[in-house]
Fold these 2 entries.
Entry 1:
Amino acid sequence: MRVYIVAASDSEPDEERRLRWGDYWFKDSLGKAVERLGHELVEDIARAEVLIHLHGYGIERVPDWTYNILWVHSHPSSAERLDMRRYDRAFAESAEFAEHMDIGHLPGASDMQPLERPIEHEAVFVGNAKGHSRPSVDKWLAEHPNGEGLAVWGEGWGWLPEGVWQGLYYPHEQLGELYAATRHVLNDNHADMDRWHFTNPRLYDVAALKGERVPTFGDVARAMLDGVRWQTRVELGCGKVKRPGFIGLDIDPNSDADIVADVRDPLPWADGAVDYIVADNLMEHIGAPFGRVMNECWRVLRPGGRMQVIVPRAPHPAAFQDPEHVRFFTPETFDYLDGGHRRWQLYGSSYGYKPWELIERVVVDDWRIEASLRRPSDG
């Protein structure tokens, strides 16, 4: 499968500074493990079949068309605000936080091997100051005011006692040697990580170097990807330019369709056989059978499967200028499909619409609506 991994360090525009982000190497190690399992790592999300979100921060938009996997390894306070309906699998490094969020528990990992070295440093800290300092460094300095025995690498440490700061960057591939030759590898977490008892990745490295059994990134990759199958993705009304990797259905025999059929007829898939459907500028062409078409999409989607509907927004001229447009949409139209909304309860249900979960609707460039819908997991 084609796998795309996203991490907080992706937001750093400076390539050299990106190497000083801890989760850059976290992503790098997981990516190599994914490739060892025989999957293809891709850099273009449009080509991806699987998305792995290493949560340090949220991402602007979780795609509908990929199989989405979340692993919360830091910043749990912002993870609490995520819409878990966008993810097909979700994990947290902390067992307590996993239970709190009702998601899976997946511990951290290290690929470092046991290593013994003569002690050269009493204490080291590798990481950025993130403001003024870090609690573990402050604690050492409180006991050793002149920084005796301490060596620090990272940004923002120019104020340390003379001889303590060693430079901006310590080569990642040599960290094992450094930690093995250190009596105290200093470590601390963000406050929200401490509250939920997250373990910092640095501690997994130290444990592995001491010969303790810790999960490898291969273990993590297998836990994430085992059982994930190829996605069945369908584009209804695909026209002459079908999305790559999709099964196209269109009424026009001269289109790029794999299946020439009328979307107003029963769809040619078994119940729950499809993972994702996109209908891009199609539904405005559907007249009276709109409800029947949406119910057919609901039927063929697996429970938890998603659908994206893209339509022109009324009263923008784009909604009316095409003489073949027979149905008009505002953002509120999708309330009638949302089983949790009063408009579905009062009206949509009486129209015979199946209850969807409305995950998101956005107006793009003022003229079109992009709505993300989900068949309920228990539906």
Entry 2:
Amino acid sequence: MAAKRDYYEVLGIPKSSTDEEIKKAYRKLAKQYHPDLNPDDKEAEAKFKEVNEAYEVLSDKDKKARYDQFGHAGVDPQAGGGYGGGYGAGGFDFGDIGDIFEGFFGGGFGNSRRSNPNAPRQGRDVQTAITIDFFEACKGTKKQISIQRMENCSECSGTGSAPGSSPQACPDCGGSGQVRVQQRTPFGAITTQKTCSRCQGKGKIISNPCQKCRGTGAVRVSKRLEITIPAGIHDGQVLTVRGQGDAGTNGGPSGDLNVSITVRPDVLFKRDGYDIWCEVPITYMQACLGDEIDVPTIDGAVKQIIKEGTQPGTVIQLRGRGVQNLNGRGRGDQYIELTIEVPKDLNKAQKDILRQFEAAVTDKQYEKRKGFFQKLKKFVGNE
């Protein structure tokens, strides 16, 4: 009997190889010499056995240690090494070879579980988008939209078969959509599952297809729907309308309609969550003397008192004048930011009046200005 080759030489790797490198080399050679890819090739079959024998030892930590120290004698069954020369359950990693078989046979290794092709399945969701204005988002609205979706064929009631006929269970797979295939290997007969080529995994055969849907059981239709957009919806939010997507198969429920909402910005209002902000300009005299003005809200104009001595940037809060909360629990607030508009293109008489007014005002009446110059003096004094 010829002497056994060194296991590292068999796998074409150095003795310093890592576990991952050993596995990678084994998988490459196992695929190369697999009997199913080399039918009636005795040399390839012998190399396949040799590769598996080498991997069975080098993939086992204890066996590899004995082999590294004593060579083949360390793993010879006569020396108590535990290697019997076969390919049974004595430490062989069927997880690895299972991965290889899956690549060869296109199916699962062993008794992998498959879903029933005739079970009810929900239809796919349909996506669409609409644009609404700011007030529609705040108040809610109803919109008519047009969509394309798949519906069960009215001609065949979704069966795919022409009227008067019906689908038949696939004779090859018995309606399961999967067929079992046995392959002879050095380990014995191994059973794998593959998608049935006759029914393409559907489990049924349509010998007389419906002319309207061409045997698919569904047709694409244009549908016009009215959707309700709730008050308080946000820009970029997706509104889901249940059951308005594609029809399900095998009696399954329809998918959903997902409507992406875009809200056009408004010229007056800006939204921050459920609060609304609005900038309102007032005159210099209104800021000095105070006044009652009309301020806009999403419910219409309301009266608002401007206090004497109002400063630029003053913010007034109007409670409950914001956007309706989506969950229906109250509304946000509206914030009015006051800006003071300085008049332009004054004539001589107007300028003279303002100079007289300025001369009559004392520093005490300019709190911010007075405080600023006091700080400025301290700053300059520290220079």
